Amino acid sequence: QVQLVESGGGLVQPGGSLRLSCAASGSRFSINAMGWYRQAPGKERELVAIITKNDNINYADSVKGRFSISRDNAKNTVYLQMNSLEPEDTAVYYCYWETSFATYWGQGTQVTVSS
User: Fold this and answer.
1) 60 versus 30: which is more confidently predicted?
2) How far apart are CA 13 and CA 115, in angstroms?
3) Quick one: which of 20, 51, 53, 74 has the most CB atoms within 10 Å?
4) By the 8 A CB rule, do 38 and 18 touch?
5) Among 71, 34, 65, 30, which Cα is nearest to 49's?
């Protein structure tokens, strides 16, 4: 069983930045991909950014040029650097961890962009 611990969410003004972190522990299987999804009130969960084991990266069109995903394999951690935040980025952000055995989700961290 993989445990995912997310951190870094909070309240930020439009144009501000936040950095989310997701640390995984207990993983015994090879990793296929890791990344971030988000869900805003009344909307479906959507992909934000994902990075595969081969370092292929995919971003949602709405965050391209503003968000950056990275990982630290030694720390089993994936990061999401979010710049130029907009009110439309307000959502609960979920860490996503896909192994050769199963897919795991973090508990979610709230990001609120408001003046």
Assistant:
1) 60
2) 5
3) 20
4) no
5) 34
